[in-house]
Amino acid sequence: MAGSPRQTGRQFDADHEGFLRHRRFRWLKRAALLCVVVTLVYALSDPQPRPNGGTWLGYALGTLGLILILWLALLGVRKRTMTRGAWSLKAWTSAHVYLGLALIVIATLHSGFQFGWNVHTLAYALMMLVIASGIFGIVAYATVPGALSSNREEMTEAQMVEALGAVDRQLEHAAQPLERRWIEQVMLALDESLAGDGLLRRLSARPRAGATMQAIAAFNSASPDEAADPAIVRVEALLQRRQAQLSRMRRHMRFKALLEIWLFVHVPTTFALIAALIAHVVSVFYYW
Amino acid sequence: MSERVRIAIVGSGPSGLSAAARAAQLGLSHVLLERATHLSDTIHKYQKGKHVMATPSALVLRSDMEFGAGKREAVLDTWDQQAAALGIHVMYGAEVQAIAGEKGSFIVALKNGGQVAAETVVLAIGTQGNPTLLRCPGGDMGHVQYQLDDPGEYVDEHIVVVGSGDAGIENALGLSADPAQRNTVTILNRSADFARSKPANVALLHEAAAAGRLTIRLETSPAEVRKGELLLDTRDGQEIIPCDRIIARMGSAPPRNFIEACGIAFTGPDREALPVLSPAFETSRAGVHVIGALAGYPLIKHCMNQGYDVVEFINGNHSLKPADEPILAERLASLPGQRSVDQWLDLLRGNIDIFSDVSPLQLRELLLDSTVRSFAPGEPLFVRNDTGSSLFAIAEGSVVVEIDKGDPARIVTIGQGQIVGEVGLISGRRRGATVRAGGPVIAVELSRTAALRLIATVPAAGRAITRVSIERQILQMFGSGLTREDIAEVIDSAEVTTVRAGEAVLTEGETGNDILVIRRGSMAVEKTIGGKTVFLSYLPAGSYVGEMALLDGLPRSATVRAAVRSEVIRLPGDAFARLLERKPDLQRKAMADMAARRDINAFIEGRKEQFSSSVDMYSETAQFLVDNGLGEATDVLLIDETLCIGCDNCEKACADSHDGLSRLDREAGRTFAHLHVPTSCRHCEHPHCMADCPPNAIHRGADGEVVIDDTCIGCGNCQRNCPYGVIRMDAVPPKKPSLLSWMLFGSGPGPGEAPEKWRKAHAASDEVPKKAIKCDMCSGIDGGPACVRACPTGAAIRIAPETMLSVSRLAKEE
Q1: How many helices (H) and strands (E) does chain A have?
Q2: B607 FRET partner, CA 20 to 30 A, in A202, B425, B585, B675?
Q3: Cis peptide before B279 (omega within 30 of 0)
């Protein structure tokens, strides 16, 4: 806009691109180029007696794959080390994703399509498992955040817990004047907790099921006389609010779990992979 | 009435107590009048164990009372003991109602009916003020109280809380918290909502009401207090409710009314104005003195020194050198000319226009917050695009301003006695030009606080600075070889007005040809297209609008609305048109600016069919961002929630880059269309936090970041003043074990902010003072803000609003 003062400051890379699109798919292009090059070299070379890890190309691909795997594993360190300097974790993630996918090509060509029941194929299988869990992660990262954001409607986790507590306190109070059978329903509903702590339970918890739903159903089936009682109406409305809050929290936990669960495969398998790789490399050289 | 004392001191805070101590030491007859039942009520009300700081450390303490940094209890104990040892004559529970008589024979009337006769009066009442009283009939009855110390004290009572601020809500909640007390609590709110209170408090209040623990009465105010009942004015008429006790929490009145009622003049009508004082702290009413926070000096050491000095002055010691003499002597020693402090003060007062009405004492105080420097010929005072909010006054020599960044040869000379750098002071933005010494120059650099205090206390200086700043802002904005003489006519008829947030300064379709210059704040430009409001652009301070209507004579083509509370300079169109006629360069520039704006209008008009949804989306998003304070931001963290996986690595990185405390709360804050504004500093153009910082610890850094430095005394003013809740008060946690030992051996709490429990268990000492903590944009850290660098998915971005809030972005994205 004309007539506006210009602000000059430190110029940061504030472009608004996600990790997949980072710098117009810079790492996708590089990884694709790498795959094309190694495939071409593989196709054009004719090692004797047949392609495998023991040829010069096999060694080259194996070394490349090993270095890549070790470097990719360092993302976990990079993420937690807040050093100075112009690095960006987004760029690291981007490179991690695309170079990790390139490993499928590199490692497969390294194997020369020779598989068997041995430590070598174990390393390969573990690597593919790591990559598969990573692909799940990419899909989760690309699809879940929007839903997570819409579901929480500006509430923080602490506020959700607080809001549920507030409804519960009101319920406890509002149920006092009711008959015993109603109070029992409300007490059962109040006893219903979220889902528990386990990751699988968080994933499988159904948002609209449980004692609160049952209590609502019971209140719904009240006789017309009872349904006209303002105290009953009030408790039922509070139960509905409790259910809405509970469903929101369950969905929130499920989304958070979806964003995390693959890491429980990805990270431990990475360590197993590194162990298997060590066995693979040592055995290859030992029996050389 | 007892016999007449030499000095009556009102208020036993640091300044009053120090004054009384001096009087006692000198053997002068005196009385120290204290409203409360103990000394130093303000410090007494600090929370238990609060660390009281002693800044500025350079200032020498000159008082008969001791004072050093330490716990509230230790400070108060020392003062109590020393007050007793010195034989200070204190009268507790003595609230002053009026001061009658004149110098030599004052009669100080107390609220409890007592009277004190005194020759002189020293007012050291601070700025805390008195609670607003219940004005209705019966408001003075015994069961009306203005404070609630322990809500657990009352049982089986009908209690009415009057006032809808946080204090009132918290009292009402406290009184109704325990049903076993069986209190019937009612809270009265004059208006229909609780707009002035924290949302969390309001939510708790409504919850308590829903649970039947208390009653909220909206649009209701007390009409008459009676024994055992209260008559209410409600929207539907009057009503009587039982009432055994009234807790009135309606805020407090600043002490200005009382001071003015004592016949003491203020420097102006503004809220920031201070009493007019002589060098001996004497007010416009002879024999009445004002010292301490009310005189504009909020730091304890300043106050105590003033207490000492004022009694010395009253006792006839006119040769007393202020306590700051050695500091000033040291500061001035390096200057050429071998002058004494007094000679320097005379020279500065004589040569610098804005100092001509300043008393020597005020000048001393100003210089404590300022530096006097000599510059060699050609040496820059400051450079274009530097950040700095200080004001330079030229005491000797002249300076040249390089007005054109492309051509250093184009200069304007500013002579002795004038000021430079006032734009940074007013608008908080970067320096607009380089200023160099035109020969040997001696200049005073006033810090922002010193300059603002000068404006508040010396109206003539304030007016001079305002005029110069308007003149310079316009010269700088339009450039085009204009001189002061050229724009004199425009400036003479210029008018500065304050605009509320949301108020329109120009309305689409109206006629008018005035030019508006945004002096403070920022504006949003909107246009109505097909019945919908489209957000066209965002104008920061230092921009102008209105040239289109002036040049083409058509009605206004867009509405310009204040995004935040702003100040605009209205330049009359006719005078400006004459200026354009005289200055073809300026005319060409204005035409070019107009063409650029026409392009944007044409773009919007042309695209309204195809792009209506994206334009709508853009407008709504821009409006959301402006509503969330981006209108006054200079750099803000946003989170794209379609990418945010909630890993909180931004918060962890923030904590690990800054002493282990995170300065942002990712999850909290508003969201619109997946664009989230987390609770994190926006680096406002006119930072609210800077408004009232006693040690002046908040500055704008080299990259426009607003930072709090180590001189923070932990008073919490900035936290209260920040409308966005981004400042936290906390103590620096102990150092964590290294990342490697956490990864390998699991020692320490790992990356990010350590949990409270771990911090407590590993604290090095009991007393780590809490200080204000906020985002500093990772000032001084290579690579820039850690939150953005540490985001694994690219969800966290930092933007400057003027780049974000322009509809022309749509054109680029097309």
Answers
A1: 12, 0
A2: B675
A3: no
> Do B461 and B367 share a structural domain?
yes
Q: Are residues B686 and B779 in the same domain?
A: yes
With an 8 Å Cβ cutoff, is A91 touching chain B?
Answer: no
8 A C-beta contact, residue B165 and residue B249: yes
Amino acid at B660: G
Phi (first) and psi of residue A149, to 5 degrees: -65, -45
CB-nearest to A7 from B430, B751, B785 is B430
pLDDT per residue as tens digits for the range B505-541:
999 989 888 999 998 888 888 888 777 788 888 888 8
A-chain CB neighbours of B641 within 8 Å are 145-146, 148-149
Query: Residue B411 belongs to what domain range?
Result: 326-467
Length of chain B: 814
Sign of CA dihedral B668, B670, B673, B676: negative
A7 in Cβ contact with B704 (< 8 Å): yes
| Single residue among B467, B498, B513 that ends a domain in this structure | B467
In a domain, B536, yes or no: yes
Model pLDDT for residues B547-595, shown as the tens digit of each residue:
888 888 889 988 999 888 888 999 999 998 898 888 888 888 888 888 8
> Is the Cβ of A96 closer than 8 Å to some Cβ of chain B?
no
3-class DSSP string for B405-419: CCCCCCEEEECCCCE
Q: Tokens 């510059």 sit at which residue?
A: B375
Q: What is the CATH number of the domain that holds B180?
A: 3.50.50.60
Query: Does the beta-carbon distance from A10 to B544 stay under 8 Å?
Result: no
Q: Are residues B756 and B675 in the same domain?
A: yes
Q: Which of B608, B643, B662 is the last residue of a domain?
A: B608
Structural domain contains residue B476: no
SS3 call for A14: coil
Average pLDDT score over residue span B704-720: 86
- Look at residue B31 and tell me if it is in a domain: yes
User: What is the tens place of the pLDDT at every residue in B789-809?
Assistant: 999 999 998 887 776 666 555
- Per-residue pLDDT at B201 exceeds 70: yes
Distance CA A118, CA A109 (A): 18
Q: Does B221 share its domain with B353? A: no
Closest listed residue to residue B245, CA positions, set B263, B224, B229 = B229
Q: Where does residue B660 fall: left (phi above 0), alpha (psi -120 to 50 degrees), or beta otherwise?
A: left
Q: Are B625 and B773 part of one and the same domain?
A: yes
What is the number of structural domains in chain B? 5
Question: What span, in angstroms and rounded, lies between the C-alpha atoms of B560 and B545?
Answer: 8
Asked, for residue B483, whether it belongs to a domain, the answer is: no
Global pTM? Answer: 0.76
Handedness of CA B481, B484, B486, B492 (dihedral sign): positive
Using the predicted structure, report yes or no on whether residue B321 has a pLDDT greater than 90.
no
- The helix (H) or strand (E) run that includes residue B115 is strand B115-123
Residue A230 in contact with partner chain B when CB distance is under 8 A: no
Q: How close, in Å, is residue A247 to chain B by CA atoms?
A: 19
Same domain, yes or no: B631 and B600? no
Q: Spell out the residues 6+ positions from residue B685 whose beta carbon is closer than 8 angstroms to its own.
A: B427, B428, B429, B520, B521, B522, B540, B541, B632, B633, B634
ipTM of model: 0.92
Do B674 and B774 fall within a single domain?
yes
Which residues make Cβ contacts (< 8 Å) with residue B76, sequence separation at least 6?
A: B39, B40, B43, B44
B227 DSSP assignment? T
Two structure tokens written together for B577? 């048109």
Residues 404 to 443 of B: which have CB under 8 A from any A CB? 429-430, 432
CA distance B343 to chain A (A): 41
Residues B461 and B498 in one domain: no
Contact call for residues B121 and B33 (beta carbons, < 8 A): no
User: Of B68, B70, B46, whose CA–CA distance to B59 is shortest?
Assistant: B68
Question: B100: which strand partners?
Answer: B107
